[in-house]
Design a protein that fits this description.
The complex is a heterodimer of chains A (251) and B (657).
Chain A: E1 4-13, E2 22-32, H1 37-50, E3 73-74, E4 77-78, E5 100-104, E6 113-115, E7 118-119, H2 122-131, H3 151-161, H4 168-172, H5 179-191, H6 193-196, H7 199-212, H8 223-227, H9 235-250
Helix pairs in contact in A: 2-7, 3-5, 5-7, 5-9, 7-9
Chain B: E1 5-10, H1 26-33, H2 39-42, E2 46-50, H3 54-66, E3 69-74, E4 91-92, H4 104-114, H5 121-141, E5 166-167, H6 173-190, E6 194-198, E7 200-208, E8 211-219, E9 225-229, E10 232-235, H7 256-263, E11 268-269, E12 274-280, E13 303-307, H8 310-317, E14 331-332, H9 334-338, H10 348-360, E15 372-375, H11 377-383, H12 385-403, E16 412-421, E17 424-425, E18 438-440, H13 458-478, H14 492-511, H15 517-531, H16 538-558, H17 570-594, H18 618-621, E19 623-628, E20 637-642
Parallel strand pairs in B: 1-20, 2-3, 2-10, 3-6, 10-18
Antiparallel strand pairs in B: 4-5, 7-8, 8-9, 11-17, 11-19, 12-16, 13-14, 13-15, 15-16, 19-20
The chains are: A alpha+beta (251), B alpha/beta (657).
């Protein structure tokens, strides 16, 4: 049932990467509980624009939980208090009348703030560029059914591949580690015969790039998997560790 | 109707570079005789690819693998965000793994029929022909398609086909295919063969001596307008559905790159062909920012219905009854009733119109009266909840998070929404636009879907263009360019294009009116939905043209953009896109007004059969309408490309028997 609530949002404002940031609190009235969290921010921005102020900058695109563009720390949780969803799928019915909602950008040394709530996540692209692929060119590949793949392996690979690269795992980690992100890609490809060939080299290259880019180490706290909007499992990190150790032993 | 400028000149098959020979041999003949570029020369040639969706990413990766230097632009922070990622259901190919009688010809035939006989035969045949290679390629990249227990690939059915030819990866097929293309692209970025420009937006194409030689793009972080040279420019920037404000497109999806190509002389073909997808979550409030699609794959097992009795519909609208309260005998499964042969799997345009027809008659099932049920109770009974959850679990979860209703317990409510645009920049068989050296791929071009696109064909076309067509055909052009040295971006054509952009930005910033960009965009969207939406007529389209002019005037005199042109300014980005959506909206209405027939997604109420089916006028409108820009405030000229079918016979589409 649609209701409306009155809330306060305490938002991180930061003019640029080098500028000093601060929290700003805005009061919003009559927010429909059927609206999404980002639609609430749209309402805030319309209000700011009508007051001739600059709107709050935040990343968003598909607004259906798949592109990985939206981010935000909401009340201390990446993608907010609800589970298994991204910020754009969070709805205002999860909040109560009179709530003050704190909204911050991802906090990770590897994801510097660009403006307000928008951060630079190109570090994740660089990790993929270091080895998150199967080295095949277009054309000249075998028939798709030439190599049967056990359904279990294909399903596990699909679960790992459901990562949307949003950065919540690194943002949630007290060490700022990107292990779950790296593990998801390493696992997906290591589980499939097509990716198995390069599995060792891939694990080494991606981990080395992750370290180089300033992400922290993994201490198995599990915060990443707990906050992952796509429920990418911690067991992927175990698989990454196995691939990585085997590769290093062979060196 | 108003007189429109129709060119005496027509576009012939020779102009469109359709190869000679029987249908099935055209592409082979083309490849056998086209010109190629040798490896040493490839290194000396630069290609700009704008967009990193399925078409853009696969093209950029493939061109770089071949040895060209690629400059690849994306509007988001990463190529992986492109809106192809949101495609749910699947990708078609004629593998015939199910042994159900599929073939390249049948995929071609279904696609051209699905497009209501308004696509080019040779292009569609080629699409069907290369589709199988796409599946092979994706599997080789590690795309985790769904498999059967024996380890082989699984398939499902989509609208407009009687075979199971759709490959899928849960309800996230677009994501997995895009991540495959993204990984291939990333590999080339790592090797230095692709230079990636993220958070850049193309604002113009630079034409020198009649050839595309580069682009002007704005760095969305610094706000700087920058110049880029290349020997050829490829635009793969998707569709223009966001002209309707509310659509299933992502927030940043826009038609600006295509419109700038049009303004520089590229023809814009069939702008009125927009696809209205039948299964979206209904509109629910004034604050709403976008519409969410529920995959067509749901129609494999879900049954669509409204109540038979008007009083039941009224009780549902008032919230006094829920879907599950209506007994079986009082339900009208109207698609199964009207189209027994295809049932719930009729093509999208047919399903959308049928939903509108029932809701217009008062049988809508939600508070606005603009929704129908998509019901899984039969499937749950037949297959069990676990099987249904395994097939559609993520879609059910998405629905529940948005609507707060559990679809396992109560039927989903759905309604049609703008989803895809079949119209776009005109291209020849080589995917080259009417400007030499400017190519257009994926949804941004017009070529393969005619007046209606079948489900699971967008992913097929995007990847066909990017992996298997453009990397060949662009060489036929570039082979003549090997002696052309890299040009300086100080040339007057670059300077003039940049100046025009800066003037436009300054003009927008200085209006300092009272309206936000979104409030004006919403107004445009309402005009588009009311008059250029699912049911169109001459009077409504004339009203739309008048109202769009008013919106344009309001925009250019009363928009307010806070902040500066330097640095991140999201309102400025949106304003630049809206300026172009307004012009696209006008072009859509103009094209829809001229096309006095109903075909595919274009339904003119004046042209329907007594049963309410689309009535084509093949004697008058069997052509692609290609609009040529004549300057601001000038009427565009329409050039016809006759679609003479050599190999298939046009029929009235029949999904009844």
């Amino acid at each position: 049932m649609e209701r409306t609530i009155n809330i306060k949002v305490k938002v991180w404002r930061q003019a640029g990467p080098k500028a000093k940031g601060h929290f700003e609190t805005y009061a919003l009235e009559n927010i429909s509980t059927d609206s999404s969290f980002l639609e609430m921010l749209d309402v805030l921005n319309e209000k700011l624009i009508s007051e001739r102020q600059e709107p709050v900058v935040f990343d968003h695109d598909c607004r259906e939980g798949i592109c990985g563009m939206c981010s935000l720390y909401i009340n201390g949780h990446p993608h907010g208090p609800d589970s298994e969803i991204t910020t754009c799928q969070l709805h205002m019915r999860k909040f109560k009348d009179g709530d003050t909602i704190t909204v911050e950008p991802w906090r990770s040394a590897a994801f510097p703030v660009i403006k307000d709530l928008m951060v630079d996540r190109r570090a994740y692209d660089k990790i993929i560029q270091a080895g998150g692929f199967v080295s095949v060119n277009t054309g000249g590949v075998p028939d798709a059914n030439a190599i049967p793949i056990p359904k279990r392996d294909a399903d596990l690979a699909m679960d790992a591949a459901s990562c949307i690269g949003c950065g919540a795992c690194a943002a949630a980690c007290k060490n700022g580690s990107a292990m779950l992100f790296v593990a998801a890609k390493v696992s997906q490809l290591a589980l499939l015969p097509q990716g198995k060939v390069e599995a060792a080299a891939r694990a080494k290259a991606m981990v080395a790039k992750m370290d180089e880019l300033g992400f922290g180490n993994c201490t198995n706290t599990g915060a990443c998997a707990a906050e992952c909007p796509k429920c990418v499992s911690l067991s992927n990190i175990a698989r990454l560790n196995r691939e990585y150790l085997c590769a290093k032993m062979k060196d | 109707m108003e007189t429109i400028k129709v060119s005496e000149q027509i576009i012939t098959p020779q102009d469109a570079k359709i190869p000679e020979g029987p249908l099935a041999e055209k592409w082979t003949n083309y490849k056998a005789h086209q010109k190629l570029v040798n490896p040493a020369n490839k290194r000396r040639l630069d290609v700009i690819v704008v967009g990193t969706g399925l078409a853009g990413a696969s093209a950029a990766a493939s061109l770089a693998e071949m040895g060209f230097n690629v400059l690849n632009f994306c509007i988001q922070d990463s190529p992986r965000r492109a809106h192809s990622i949101a495609a749910q259901g699947g990708i078609n190919a004629a593998k015939n793994y199910q042994n159900d009688g599929d073939s390249v010809y049948r995929l071609f035939y279904d696609t051209i029929k699905g497009g209501d006989y308004r696509a080019r035969e040779a292009n569609v045949y080629r699409l069907a022909e290369v589709a199988n290679s796409i599946i092979d390629q994706c599997v080789a990249q590690g795309v985790p398609f769904a498999r059967e227990y024996g380890g082989l690939l699984d398939n499902r059915s989509f609208g407009g086909a009687q075979v199971s030819r759709t490959f899928y990866a849960k309800g996230q097929t677009g994501q997995q295919l895009l991540l495959g293309a993204y990984s291939a692209l990333s590999r080339q970025v790592g090797k230095g063969k692709v230079k990636l420009y993220s958070r850049y937006e193309m604002l113009d194409v630079v034409v020198i001596d009649g050839r595309a030689r580069g682009i002007i793009a704005r760095n969305l972080v610094t706000g700087r307008v920058e110049r880029f040279f290349a020997h050829a420019v490829v635009v793969g920037t998707g569709g223009y559905g966001n002209a309707f404000f509310l659509s299933t497109n992502a927030m940043a999806s826009n038609g600006s790159a295509a419109l700038q190509c049009y303004k520089k002389g590229a023809y814009f073909a069939n702008p009125c062909y927009a696809q209205i997808h039948p299964t979206c979550i209904p509109v629910h409030g004034e604050f709403q920012s976008k519409l969410t699609l529920m995959s067509e794959s749901l129609r494999n097992d879900g049954r669509i219905w409204v109540p038979k009795k008007l009083e039941d519909a009224k009780a549902l609208q008032a919230g006094k009854l829920q879907g599950r309260d209506i007994p079986e005998e009082d339900r009208d499964y109207y698609l199964e009733r009207r189209y027994p042969a295809f049932g719930n799997l009729v093509p999208r345009d047919v399903a959308s119109r049928a939903a509108k027809e029932r809701c217009d008659a008062g049988f809508g099932v939600n508070s606005t009266g603009l929704a129908v049920f998509l019901d899984f109770s039969d499937a749950i009974k037949r297959l069990g909840r676990d099987v249904v959850a395994a097939k559609y679990g993520n879609l059910f979860q998405m629905y529940e998070k948005i609507v707060d209703v559990d679809p396992y317990e109560n039927p989903m409510m759905i309604f049609p929404a703008i989803h895809y645009t079949m119209g776009g920049i005109w291209v020849d068989y080589e995917l080259q636009t009417s400007i030499k050296g400017l190519f257009c791929i994926g949804e941004a071009n017009f070529s393969d879907h005619g007046a209606n696109r079948l489900g699971a064909s967008a992913l097929m076309q995007g990847l066909a263009d990017g992996y298997f067509v453009l990397p060949y055909t662009i060489q036929n052009y570039l082979s003549d360019q090997i002696a052309v040295p890299r040009m300086s971006t100080d040339l007057p054509e670059f300077a003039a294009a940049e100046q025009a952009i800066n003037d436009k930005i300054n003009k927008l910033m200085s209006i300092q009116g009272k309206r936000s960009v979104d409030s004006i965009h919403r107004e445009l969207g309402l005009v588009m939905w009311d008059f250029v939406g699912m049911g169109r007529n001459a009077e409504g389209l004339r009203t739309a043209l008048t109202k769009i002019k008013e919106v344009k005037k309001e925009f250019w005199s009363n928009v307010f953009i806070p902040g500066q042109a330097e640095g991140v300014n999201v309102e400025l980005e949106k304003a630049l896109r809206l300026a172009d959506f307004i012009e696209i909206g006008e072009l859509m209405a103009r094209d829809a007004l001229h096309r006095e027939e109903s075909c595919g997604g274009h339904f003119r109420e004046e042209f329907q059969t007594p049963e309410g089916e689309a009535l084509r006028q093949d004697d008058k409108f069997a052509y692609a309408a290609c609009w040529k820009y004549n300057g601001d405030d000038q009427e565009p000229t329409m050039i016809k490309e006759p679609l003479d079918y050599e190999f298939v016979t046009r029929q009235t589409r029949n999904y009844k028997a």
